[in-house]
Write a structure and sequence with these properties.
The complex is a heterodimer of chains A (461) and B (297). Chain A is an alpha+beta fold. Chain A folds into three domains: 2-44 and 273-460, Multidrug efflux transporter AcrB transmembrane domain (Multidrug efflux transporter AcrB transmembrane fold); 54-129 and 263-270, 2-Layer Sandwich (Alpha-Beta Plaits), CATH 3.30.70; 134-257, Gyrase A, domain 2 (2-Layer Sandwich), CATH 3.30.1360. Chain A has 14 helices and 15 strands. Chain A has a four-stranded antiparallel sheet. In chain A, strands 8-5-11-12 form a four-stranded antiparallel sheet, covered by helices on one side. In chain A, strands 9-10-13 form a three-stranded antiparallel sheet. Chain B has helices at 2-5, 7-28, 34-37, 53-61, 87-96, 115-143, 153-182, 188-217, 224-256, 262-296; strands at 39-45, 69-73, 77-82, 106-113. In chain B, strands 2-3-1-4 form a four-stranded antiparallel sheet. In chain B, strand 2 (69-73) and strand 3 (77-82) form a beta hairpin. Chain B is elongated. Classes of the chains: A alpha+beta (461), B alpha+beta (297). The interface between A and B is large, with 74 and 76 residues. Strand 14 (264-272) of chain A pairs antiparallel with strand 4 (106-113) of chain B, so a sheet runs across the interface.
Chain lengths: 461, 297
């Protein structure tokens, strides 16, 4: 008996500990959120785009030119490039995912980009589509024709672009770019390191053009036209083009993010305003609370004392599941919240099965203690099999589903697993810890259900 | 047990309901949402009062967007549905909505889905339903392998699938009727609702069959009819109660929950109702009917 009570205490402390964790880590629930330890700030709910507002873009990758064995690695490279480009613009928690086409799921290779907080879709598309084009050009031969324009004041301007000719050296051969500051002038400059091929090309270009200008073009415009003094064999170049520190930083980022390994086209876009999401969250929370209360009232009225324990188990269920959402973390969408709310109703399923069985056993003439034991034992096979089928269903949906269905399947499946713990283990421990084994009219009343009263029970006996 | 006694009435009632639903589905048709067929959806809000639909229609006509469906939403907003739009078209559309600045407008959400994404989604949705069905037959055949007499366990699986079809065809039929009057469209959430109905309904059937299994293995082999009847009446309270608890959470989800999941909650409630009906009044009589039919052979 003592053991049972200690166990019940441990579970009680654990359950309230989890609930406390959920409470402490949530901005909206906790008024002192800003002032508390960093640990608690690390676990907010992760809200999907439909709740937090933001942009959702689906790109199709054209892998026609890629050998099939390299599709996987080029898609990953593509994801990394896009991720770097997005990070440059300071979007918090962007999600870039590759969706592989396959025999079963069908469709081609896709890239899914979620940008929370970005509601200007035009900017988002630009941000992703931007590829910096870095080119190195050398002076055109003296006798080459030059384009010149004469404006109405009679001033002659030489067209710069005709002065230079393209070389093979481009941003493709760049290994990395870094931001540096000139030691004397403190001016920001961008230092470039070429890869092997690039180094060779650059050495050749500098060797052939000693005393001449080499133009560095960015996005089709010359940014810097230094004069070569000697051959540069180590593959290092510097662009110093009157940048502001910010411009230089951005340029370094863009150069490092590089060119896309596979061409992409935009298939579909979605933007959700932040206010729409916020009201959906509020509505979801309200529906969840009302639903919880209705289920709790029903359980207490119908199942009395065991019902009360089932409510405690349901409270623990809610706390544990929410904590799992925070820790994994599970991205919550409106559909996910819907799944969670339904799971509140389902989580008590095992309780209902067990309590009905318990009542039956007690009616058969078992005393309360045996009734509880047999109730749990006999109900187990149906709890096991029905929950197994739910888990199988959620695995299939998670495997095949689109992101929205996946999110739902995850909340649903986790809910079933947690409910098996809460509805069976937790309620069992508490029921036994109460230590009711005397069978009198009052305890029989506490353990019966529905509309039966003490009077009815007596008559039935 | 009155359900077994009057099984012909209940079986024919279910068949009639399914037939009516099929008729609804074919006469009213199922409108596919942009999730499945591609298209664009723009939600806008006019903080200082919205213009008439006809004004907007005229403004949109001048753009090269062909057809636009305009529905009022909330107090002062509109939902505008068109074919799928690229970013440039999206911008011209949003700009035209202020009617040259006369009605200040703010954009709340924009979705554009290419037709290929939509057809892939439909493909996946159908595939997941088929896979769920197959997995359920296999699981039930396995779980009830010890009760192959008098009805073999795979038949429990087949009966479950037949009742599951019953459980999703009826809500789909009701939805077809509902969408005929409200213009509601089939979206991913609708598919999700059907899948959830599948899950909950299998859950229910397994509980009833589990009781049959227990009673059969307890040596109760005298009369199959009676065993089924008793098993059903023993699980009826549990079945009703668990449906009630789920309805207790679905009703607030419908009344107070987010706009996006309203239809979802509604279909689920309808599906749940017919799911519980079929567990008690359709699956059990069907089981007895199969056994009687076997004897006759």
């Amino acid at each position: 008996m003592k053991k049972r009570i200690i166990l019940a205490f441990i579970i009680l402390i654990f359950g309230f500990g989890v609930a406390f964790f959920v409470f402490k880590t949530e901005l909206k629930l906790n008024k002192n959120f800003e002032t508390q330890k960093a640990f608690f700030k690390k676990f907010p709910f992760r809200l999907g785009l439909d709740l937090s507002g933001g942009s959702h873009l689906i790109y199709k990758a054209d892998i026609g030119a890629v050998p099939s064995s390299e599709v996987g690695s080029s898609m990953n490279a593509l994801r990394d490039v896009i991720e770097r480009r997005i990070n440059l613009f300071g979007v918090s928690e962007p999600v870039v995912q590759v969706e592989r086409g396959g025999l079963i799921s069908g469709g081609g290779e896709k890239l899914i980009v979620d940008l929370p907080g970005v509601t200007d879709i035009k900017k988002a598309i630009e941000m992703i589509g931007q590829t910096p084009i870095l080119e190195f050009k050398t002076e055109a031969p003296q006798n080459a024709p030059q384009n010149a324009t004469v404006d109405k004041n009679g001033k002659v301007t030489l067209d710069v672009s005709s002065q230079f000719i393209s070389t093979e050296l481009t941003g493709r051969y760049l290994q990395k770019a870094t931001l540096e500051f000139d030691q004397n002038t403190r001016e920001p400059k961008v230092s470039l390191q070429f890869n092997n091929t690039g180094t060779k090309l650059f050495a050749q270009i500098t060797k052939d053009n000693i005393g001449k200008m080499v133009a560095i073009y960015l996005d089709g415009a010359p940014v810097s036209t230094p004069v070569v003094r000697e051959e540069i064999p180590n593959g290092q170049a510097v662009i110093s083009g009157n940048f502001t520190p910010n411009e230089a930083k951005l340029l370094v980022g863009r150069l490092n993010s590089g060119a896309l390994p596979v061409p992409i086209t935009l298939l579909s876009t979605q933007t959700i305003g932040a206010t729409l999401g916020e009201s959906a969250v509020k509505a979801g929370v309200k529906a969840a609370i009302i639903g919880f209360l209705l289920v709790a009232l029903f359980l207490i009225f119908w199942y009395r004392l065991p019902g009360l324990i089932a409510v405690l188990a349901l409270f623990f269920y809610t706390a544990i599941l929410l904590a799992i959402f925070k820790l994994l973390p599970v991205t919550l969408t409106a559909a996910g919240i819907g799944g969670f709310i339904i799971s509140l109703g389902m989580a008590v399923d095992a309780n209902v099965l067990i309590f009905e069985r318990m009542k039956e056993e007690i009616r058969k003439g078992n005393n309360i203690d045996d009734g509880i034991h047999n109730g749990f034992k006999r109900a187990w096979t149906s709890v096991r099999d029905s929950n197994t089928s739910s888990i199988i269903t959620s695995i299939i949906l998670f495997w095949l589903g689109t992101p929205l269905i996946k999110g739902f399947a995850l909340t649903f499946g986790l809910g079933v697993l947690v409910s098996m713990f809460s509805a069976i283990t937790v309620s069992r421990i508490f029921l036994f810890a109460l230590g009711i084994n005397k069978s009198n009219r009052f305890t029989r009343f506490l353990f019966s259900s529905g509309f039966s009263s003490i009077q009815n029970i007596k008559n039935n006996q | 047990m009155f359900i077994i006694k009057h099984k012909k009435i209940f079986l024919s009632l279910s068949v009639i309901l399914v037939l009516i639903s099929v008729v609804f589905i074919f006469t009213f048709g199922l409108k596919l949402g942009i999730d499945f067929k591609g298209g664009a959806l723009l939600e806008v809000n006019y903080p200082s009062g919205r213009p008439d639909v006809s004004l907007l229609e005229n403004a949109i006509k001048t753009l090269n967007i062909n057809q636009a469906l305009i529905q009022p939403t909330g107090e002062s907003g509109y939902l505008i549905k068109t074919r799928d739009l690229n970013e440039l078209e999206h911008e011209t559309l949003s700009q035209s909505l202020s009617l040259k600045g006369k009605y200040p407008v703010s954009e709340k959400g924009f979705t554009s889905i290419g037709p290929s994404v939509g057809s892939e989604l439909a493909h996946k949705a159908i595939l997941s339903i088929i896979f769920v069905f197959i997995a359920i037959i296999l699981f039930i055949t396995y779980a009830f392998r010890k009760v192959s007499k008098p009805v073999s366990s795979w038949k429990y699986g087949i009966i479950t699938i037949i009742t599951l079809l019953h459980d999703i065809i009826i809500p789909t039929g009701i939805f077809a009727l509902f969408s005929h009057y409200t213009g509601a469209e089939i979206d991913t959430l609708f598919v999700l609702a059907l899948l959830t109905i599948l899950g909950l309904s299998v859950h229910d059937k397994i509980v009833v069959f589990d009781r049959v299994r227990e009673n059969l293995s307890a040596g109760d082999k005298k009369d199959f009819r009676e065993t089924i009847g008793r098993s059903t009446s023993q699980t009826i309270v549990r079945s009703i109660n668990i449906t009630l608890t789920i309805i207790f959470v679905l009703v607030p989800l419908y009344l107070f929950g987010p706009e996006t999941t309203k239809n979802f909650a509604l279909i689920l409630t309808i599906g749940l109702f017919f799911g519980i009906y079929s567990s008690l009044f359709f699956a059990s009589p069907l089981l007895v009917w199969v056994e009687e039919w076997q004897k006759k052979k």
